[in-house]
Write a structure and sequence with these properties.
By secondary structure, the chain is α+β, with helices and mostly antiparallel strands. The protein is 38% helix and 19% strand. The chain is globular and about 120 Å long. It catalyses: ATP + H2O = ADP + phosphate + H(+).
Length: 1326
């Protein structure tokens, strides 16, 4: 929208400026980017800049994202350059806003008020995933404004800040989407922060490094564990405090118990809301919407008194300008000149003390509660309080034996639980506690200190075999680390320094901006240094970046201490189930009071017996029933080498509908075998391919051999070559040698040739390549060798070096399932002056000469195809998600059965002459010579449906092969427009190729947002994000457990997938059966007691003991041990406890049991021998009580038998030997009570002898009751099975239902920003 549409722009400008001067600095402003500070529209990276440069370390980080400047991802590059981009700037953390550009303009722009610049239109979110682009070009002084689309976008960002007051870093920006992305597309959490709270913005875009890969430094408010959603201040109120203690005394301490359960009520009752500045307590809501009440403490620093709170073991300092508590962080952007000074001098003692005050000691410590404290918390748990209440009540009723038994069970259970909790905390503390001696540079000298004394900014000397005590950035030298703790992958990872050897030894050291958070230079706490290669003065130096709980290891500990909430319906509805039981108890309470009072029973007895009904309806064994099935399932999984670190995920495994698989190492063998090389013949004007050489002895192409021998990241560890198995295979095929010399240079010896590494650029998924720069001693020349995906190498190579049949040759090998890598080279001029590594890498990887293809054979694991077939028969859809070539992925998918033979497939191809989503055309992969009928069809690129079929599109099965570049663009387009094309892609996509790790995670989250339960299986290396995001993530790793995924299988094939699904289904089915059984048990006993209350009788002490401890307790325990069915059924168990089938089944069973108990109650009273003689004081020994007790015993067994049929998820009852034995014993003893009791047993059991004929009558009624209940249960089972069979399996569709409304796609009024530069220009003209 143009500014000319407003007639009063000058007045608007002046008003906004005045308003902006008065508003709080925590609010948001609009301003335009300074002319000199521009965002590169071709980049997807992000950068954090720091305002305060005086101390060289401190300062609050601000981030700006340029990912959202364009609405169409560079689709509108033809737009006018004079259109300024409005940016919403958020100044939470600093009042400073400086630029070397026009200062007055910036001051004016800073004070624009956001809300006054809004007009009506259509608001769209911006996606933070864009198309991967070539490496960053040097644009430090590029004054061209970023291109934008015609409709402006609402952006949340931070002020433009300066990394150095004398040197403006301007070639890279970060834009953060204002609208918070919810995990997995879930709706708002049920908890809401209190009103009048200080809500902090939550950027959604991860910070990215200059190299284009995700940075390890995340924004403070984007941290799942430490991100803050809101803060509310409270202060001490004397009047409220006095009232609180008075009410506590009057209620006998019950108010304390109530407030112990409901902490927020206590906070609002005892404290008064106030501003954060005056608060004594802060109510902090994390972005996971869980709260913590933090006490404000004051620490005296050198110049002022700091107010500090500790939230989840991390310090937050009060900032007066922003009126909020902020977690201190060191900056991530430096000039290289600063780093040169750091490695020479380190921190001063004053600076060290200041940083120690802000960050604390480098320890991961958390308080372990004492045994009395844990015992008190266990005792004060609501259910334990309920058990104590029950024991006291039974004692008043003189049920001493029963009360003692329940108290003993509750006590033993609590002690065992307490012991387990404390042992787990102690083990966690032992795992987290690590202190070692380390050399640190301070005041220009190296001294040995304890690692607990490290602070961010310290320069340390890294030795070999060091377990890193914190997160660091490698400054000099090279380090090889074992990061299996993070990824589960034991392949060593080489870390490269930020400062190269040449830069350190140069007479005039170059000065350029540096991002210390690059992943290639990041060292993580808890990982092991297996080898160092020093560069600078014989030392390997690193800068401490994060300490304590801010480290990667600390985040792992926090994730264990504060696990994610489970939103599984079964858990939520189980509490509703208990609530329903409580309502039933209240109804029984009213009935019992009415009837007993009508019978003239004394008030004390009425109260005791009415209260006793509550203990009957909510049985003591209910907590065990909630977890016993999952516990036994985890034990069985451990026996088959499947380990779990998140038990709640197991029940989710029973609901899986889609399973995604990585390719290499998951469906195919981990190691690839070298197959051959297809080299090129270079001519003057053209190039063509040579023949395939399966033996390199027959090939005469020196440059190809040098490329294969040198272009890798291998190294020597313990006299063995270590690294990526693929690179090892290629290197071994050349018969070369890897040598490491005392000058720390690595040499490659191939025949008479010797290559010396000058620089290595590791493989990056986003770039799809790696490269090396080497010196060839035989001809004194330097080369840059590049290896990567054929598609990327083709783009980077000179056109005349690409054979005309390039794509045809690539198709031949990828279609057969081979892994194809392309290699290329260029000569390197060692004299050229390159400003930084980014520019060096870009130069080394452009204008290449294509050398040929390296063909690797990736064999299919024999288990893959049968397991995929098992999953398909169970109506579980399978998807391949890989970073490999799409044609290779298709071939492997067909081999393993993910794609059926003769399937109509389409793949997107990019038209290089266009730059939009519609630049992709869809090619039919059907071969006309073999599939002439299928080759006829074409795909409409606008709808992704068949466009030339006479039949309805839905009747013709077809599938899509989606590539990473297309996935990024269509996802970006979907978030902008809400186009249904993206949903069609998700529905039809079976193979996703050339997917980066971020793309994989996005795919998983989008499938979950639709409402699908999604599983992911990968090797844990490049799939960590997807494995963690999936409902069930399985990492195939030789380590028993890692943080890469909730589940880890040491059997490195996908046989673990159906096993896990079957155990999940069994766990879920058992949990449902136990809940139904426990519900029926409590209701049957409830009905029996209500009937007895009608004659002023009650069950005796031993009767309760026999029913609860002899019959029910063993059945509940052993029911959970039922193993899963051997066959994976097409049906999935219900995840809803409160559903028509479950509730309907319970209601009918209750009615049946009520009917037969009614028959027994009235029939026994009509017998000729019946009398109402009162034998004992409590009127227990009666004919009715005896009959109801005996009959109820059989009803429990009937219900246990009914709910033991778990087909198709559980094995039959007789296969569970312990359950079968317990059931047989209970049945036998119950029959003995009827037919073979001695007078002594009848007397102890408070039973009254009944005639033998009546006993046979009772057994006859039991048989009829058994038949009725079994008929009811099998009717419901048959109904569910039959209704499930009506659904058909569409292998070509991932889902068939309509996708739910996406809350990210706003359907409301649009908010359009005005171009402020035009507004300012109009103001100047006037």
């Amino acid at each position: 929208m143009q500014i000319e549409s407003f007639s009063t722009s000058l007045e608007l400008y002046n008003k906004l400026k005045l308003i902006g001067e008065k508003i709080n600095k925590t609010e948001s402003f609009y301003c335009e980017l300074p002319d000199m500070i521009t965002a590169n529209p071709n980049r997807n990276e992000s950068t954090t800049y720091i305002a305060n440069e005086d101390d060289g370390l401190e300062g609050t980080s601000y981030s700006i994202s340029h990912d959202h400047i364009n609405n169409n991802n560079n689709d509108n590059e033809e737009d006018d350059d004079d259109i300024s981009t409005p940016i919403l700037l958020s100044t939470h953390n600093s009042p400073h806003f400086q630029s070397d550009d026009d200062e007055s303009d910036e001051d004016a722009a800073k004070h624009y008020r956001a809300d006054s610049l809004l007009t009506h239109g259509k608001q769209r979110q911006q996606d933070h995933q864009q198309q991967d682009q070539p490496p960053l070009q040097q644009q430090a002084y590029n004054s061209t404004p970023p291109t934008t689309s015609s409709s402006f976008t609402k952006i949340s960002a931070s002020p433009v800040l300066i990394a150095n007051r004398d040197f403006l870093v301007s070639h890279e920006m970060v834009l953060d989407s204002e609208i918070t992305h919810r995990t997995n597309g879930e709706s708002s959490p049920p908890l809401s922060p209190p009103m009048h709270s200080h809500r902090l913005s939550t950027p959604a875009t991860p910070i990215r490094s200059l190299s284009g890969i995700s940075s390890t430094s995340d924004d403070a408010n984007n941290d799942e564990l430490l991100g803050i959603h809101s803060m509310t201040g409270y202060k001490f109120a004397l009047g409220r405090e006095i009232l609180f203690w008075i009410l506590t005394i009057l209620t006998g301490g019950l108010l304390l118990l109530f407030f112990h359960w409901f902490t927020l009520y206590e906070l609002n009752f005892r404290r008064r809301k106030t501003s954060l500045e005056n608060a004594n307590y802060i109510l902090v809501y994390g972005i996971d919407m869980r709260f913590e009440i933090c006490q404000v403490k004051e620490f005296k620093s050198e110049l002022k008194l700091d107010k500090v709170i500790t939230f989840r073991h991390s310090r937050f300092f009060y900032n007066h300008e922003s009126d909020s508590f902020i977690r201190p962080r060191i900056k991530s952007k430096y000039n290289s000149s600063n780093l040169y000074q750091f490695i020479e001098h380190g921190l001063t003692n004053d600076k060290y003390q200041s940083l120690l005050h802000k960050f604390g000691y480098n320890v991961i410590e958390f308080p372990i509660k004492s045994i009395p404290r844990l015992l008190l918390e266990e005792v004060l748990h609501p259910f334990f309080i309920f058990q104590i209440y029950s024991v006291i009540l039974w004692s008043f009723e003189e049920y001493y034996y029963y009360a003692g038994a329940i108290l003993l069970i509750a006590t033993v259970s609590s002690i065992l639980s307490l012991k387990e909790i404390r042992s787990n905390l102690i083990s966690l503390k032992e795992m987290s506690t690590y202190v070692c001696e380390i050399k640190v540079l301070r005041e220009g000298q190296f001294t040995t200190v304890q690692s607990s004394d490290l602070v961010p900014g310290d320069i340390i000397d890294i030795p070999t075999n060091l377990t890193l005590p914190c997160d660091m950035s490698l400054l000099t030298g090279q380090v090889i680390c074992n990061e299996s703790m993070l990824t589960g992958e034991s392949v060593p990872v080489t870390k490269h320094p930020i400062l190269t050897r040449d830069q350190l030894t140069a007479s005039q050291r170059p000065n350029y901006p540096v991002d210390i958070t690059e992943a290639r230079s990041s060292l993580f706490g808890g990982t092991m240094v297996v080898k160092i290669m020093p560069h600078h003065n014989g030392r390997t130096l690193a800068m401490v970046r994060e300490t304590g709980f801010q480290t990667s290891k600390g985040k792992l500990i926090l994730s264990i201490l504060f696990p994610k909430k489970s939103h599984f319906r079964f858990i939520q509805e189980s509490f509703k189930f208990i609530g329903v039981l409580c309502c039933i108890a209240m109804i029984g309470f009213a009935i019992s009071v009415w009837r007993l009072k009508d019978l003239g029973v004394d008030t004390k007895t009425i109260v005791l017996r009415a209260l006793d009904l509550i203990t009957i309806v909510i049985p003591p064994a209910l907590p065990i029933a909630m977890t016993v099935g999952t516990g036994f399932a985890l034990i069985r999984l451990k026996k088959v080498k499947i380990f779990c670190i998140s038990p709640p995920r197991l029940n989710m495994a029973g609901k899986l509908q889609v399973f995604c698989f990585d390719k290499t190492g998951t469906l195919t063998e981990e190691g690839l075998d070298f197959y051959g090389v297809v080299a090129t013949n270079q001519h003057d004007s053209h190039c063509d391919f040579n023949q395939l050489y399966t033996s390199l002895d027959d090939m005469d192409n020196r440059l190809v051999m040098l490329s294969m021998a040198s272009c890798h990241s291998l190294s020597h560890i313990n006299n063995e070559i270590a690294g990526d198995p693929l690179e090892i295979k290629i290197f071994q095929a050349t018969n070369s040698k890897l040598e490491e010399h005392d000058d720390h240079h690595t040499h490659i010896v191939w025949g008479n040739d010797r290559l010396i590494y000058q620089e290595r650029f590791d493989f990056q998924s986003s770039l799809q390549r790696m490269s090396v720069i080497v010196s060839d001693t035989s001809d004194n020349r330097q080369y840059s060798f590049v290896k990567g995906s054929p598609e990327m190498i083709k783009k980077l190579s000179l056109s005349h070096t690409i054979p005309s049949d390039y794509d045809q040759q690539l198709f031949i090998y990828t279609e057969r399932g081979y892994r194809v890598l392309a290699c290329a080279y260029r000569t390197w001029d060692s004299q050229q002056n390159v400003a930084n590594r980014e520019l060096m890498r870009q130069t080394a990887e452009e204008n290449l000469v294509f050398l040929g293809f390296i063909i690797m054979e990736n064999k299919m694991k024999p288990e893959s195809k049968p397991i995929i077939e098992v999953l398909h028969r169970a109506n579980i859809k399978t998807i391949m998600v890989t970073g490999d070539n799409p044609l290779t992925a298709i071939s492997v998918s067909k081999q393993c059965g993910i794609i059926k033979e003769n399937t109509l497939l389409f793949i997107p191809e990019l038209d290089n002459n266009k730059d939009s989503l519609d630049s992709f055309t869809w090619r039919n992969l059907s071969d006309p010579s073999t599939d002439q009928a299928l080759s006829y069809y074409q795909l409409d690129p606008y709808t992704l449906t068949l466009d030339n079929s006479d039949e309805p599109n839905s009747s013709i099965p077809y599938s899509l092969v989606v590539t990473g570049p297309f996935f990024k663009r269509i996802h970006h387009h979907y978030l902008q427009t809400g186009s249904n094309k993206f949903m069609t892609m998700l529905k039809r996509g079976l193979v996703y190729a050339r997917m980066s790790p971020d793309d994989k995670q996005t795919l998983i989250e989008e499938l979950q947002r639709i409402g699908l339960y999604v599983g992911m299986c990968g090797d844990g290396a490049n799939d960590c994000g997807a494995l963690k995001s999936a409902h069930v993530g399985i990492s195939l790793s030789e380590t028993e457990a890692s943080i890469a995924a909730p589940f880890t299988s040491t059997t490195t094939n996908i046989t673990c997938c159906p096993t896990l699904i079957k155990e999940g289904r069994a766990s879920l089915a058992v949990s449902f059966k136990l809940f139904q059984f426990m519900g029926m048990y409590s209701l049957i006993q409830f009905i029996s007691v209500i009937f007895l209350y009608f004659i002023a009788s009650v069950l005796g002490n031993w009767m309760y003991l026999y029913q609860d401890l002899w019959i029910i307790f063993p059945l509940v325990i052993f029911m959970g041990m039922t193993c899963p069915s051997d066959k994976l059924s097409i049906k999935r168990p219900s995840g809803r406890l409160i559903s028509g089938a479950v509730v309907g089944s319970l209601l009918v069973h209750i009615l049946v049991c009520l009917l037969f108990q009614t028959i027994v109650f009235f029939t026994v009273r009509k017998q000729p021998w019946y009398n109402e003689e009162v034998i004992d004081e409590d009127n227990i020994v009666t004919y009715v009580t005896t009959s109801m007790f005996i009959y109820a015993n059989f009803q429990y067994l009937i219900m246990a038998l009914s709910f033991s049929f778990g087909k198709p998820f559980l094995k039959p009852l007789y296969t569970n030997k312990l359950l079968f034995l317990a059931y047989s014993i209970s049945l036998t003893t119950s029959l003995l009570l009827v037919f073979a009791p001695t007078s002594k047993i009848w007397e102890i059991g408070q039973l009254r002898l009944v005639p033998l004929r009546w006993r046979f009558t009772l057994i006859g009624i039991v048989v009829a009751n058994l038949a009725a209940n079994l008929l009811v249960e099998f009717s419901f089972v048959y109904y569910k099975l039959r209704s499930k069979k009506k659904k058909q399996f569409h292998y070509d569709q991932i889902f068939s239902k309509d996708a739910p409304k996406d809350e990210r796609i706003s359907k409301e009024e649009n908010i359009v920003l005005l171009p402020i530069s035009n507004l300012k220009q109009n103001h100047r003209n006037n």
